[in-house]
Specification:
By secondary structure, the chain is α+β, with helices and mostly antiparallel strands. The protein is 25% helix and 23% strand. Strands 1, 2, 3, 4, 5, 6, 7 and 8 form an eight-stranded antiparallel β-sheet that branches. The longest helix has 20 residues, at 147-166. It is globular and about 55 Å long. The termini are far apart.
């Protein structure tokens, strides 16, 4: 995003109440009560330039139909069908694509293959969940991670929020739905202080997920799984660079995730109640990459970028009104009207 546009958005965010109208619309979320946040930027151009979405992306994971992006209901049916609703908010960065040459996100010869980094806020109702998402208990100060939650949200993010919308066929995504038996969780530091907050630093190793790679030799192609949004996702991540280096399109990748995580409690306008709020900041690398770039140094640069984002924000804090988001309120009104209809009334 051009610097002048960032500054203009920042001015509106600080000064103009009209921008409060954006908050609560579908897909526009917030992290720490901000819908415009500082995206993580690598401290050096050694690993390439990055790009990102202009606002926080929000996806409501529930069995309810959601307009205009219904992927949350799909993810609920695959990974969260036995869980109460989850509000997923993300700010991420990935390799900056070229208009003519495509991007490295779907290029198996690049260290950026299937890689993105950034941070999340994941909210659940206190009345429905006995603990924060991603943590094993709601005891204040307890930062023990819940491994199964981390696997579910990681696979949801790669397989569906990213690659299914990008255009990867459903059947290719589904081949990676099951948790890999080789995936593991390692606690690096049980407690670390950053920006006045306490986090656990941990790593998930060996997460198996689908990729957006198209070989160009097996007749496979990307699809418009989500009308309008698939083209948008390919514009952000970059069109795939066709390559014969892998024989099969949509090949799986084994990923390493390193992250800082903490949780708290507070009001959530989407859920219209007190909620557990989980904050995760992290980076990723593709364990199958064997090129000249050092993966450890690449991951270290990503973690430096997210630490910088953890302690600094570009805009003043803007609180959401304590009311349900507009799209949630619309669903509630529709349910209320349906309940008032007499039996047999069309």
């Amino acid at each position: 995003m051009p610097r002048w546009l960032k500054e203009l958005l920042g001015f509106f965010h600080r000064k103009w109440s009209v921008f409060q109208g954006l908050i609560g619309w579908p897909l526009v979320g917030e992290i720490g009560d901000r819908f415009l946040v500082k995206p993580p930027q690598l401290p050096t151009k050694r690993f390439g330039e990055t790009t990102h979405l202009p606002t926080v992306l929000e996806i409501y994971v529930s069995h309810e139909h959601q307009w205009p992006l219904d992927v949350g209901r799909l993810v609920d049916s695959v990974y969260f069908r036995h869980f109460e609703p989850v509000v997923f908010n993300v700010c991420f960065s990935c390799a900056k694509p070229s208009l003519l040459k495509g991007g490295d996100y779907a290029n198996p010869e690049s260290h950026w293959f299937n890689v993105f980094f950034g941070y999340y806020e994941i909210d659940v109702r206190c009345s429905e969940w006995s603990r924060p998402f991603g943590f094993s208990s709601a005891v204040e100060g307890d930062l023990a991670p819940e491994f199964d939650d981390l696997l579910r949200i990681g696979k949801s993010d790669w397989n569906y929020f990213s690659n299914y919308i990008y255009g990867v066929p459903m059947e290719a995504c589904a081949r990676h739905d099951e948790d890999p038996p080789t995936a593991s969780l390692r606690i690096i530091e049980p407690r670390v202080s950053i920006g006045g907050e306490e986090y656990v630093e941990a790593e998930v190793d060996g997460l198996d997920v689908v990729s957006g790679y198209v070989s160009g030799t097996d007749g496979q192609r990307l699809r418009n799984n989500v009308c309008g949004f698939s083209s948008m996702w390919r514009a952000v991540f970059g069109r795939p660079k066709k390559s014969g280096s892998l024989g099969t399109s949509f090949a799986g990748t084994s990923m390493r995730l390193r992250f800082y995580a903490r949780w708290g409690k507070g009001w959530d306008s989407d859920l219209d109640c007190e909620a557990y709020k989980t904050f995760i900041y992290g980076g990723t690398v593709n364990l199958g990459y064997s090129g000249p770039v050092n993966n450890d140094a690449f991951l270290a640069a990503q973690m430096e970028a997210v630490r910088a984002a953890m302690v600094a924000g570009p805009f003043a804090k803007l609180e959401r009104p304590k009311r349900p988001a507009k799209w949630k309120a619309k669903i509630a009104r529709m349910k209320e009207k349906a309940a008032k209809r007499k039996p047999g009334t069309p």
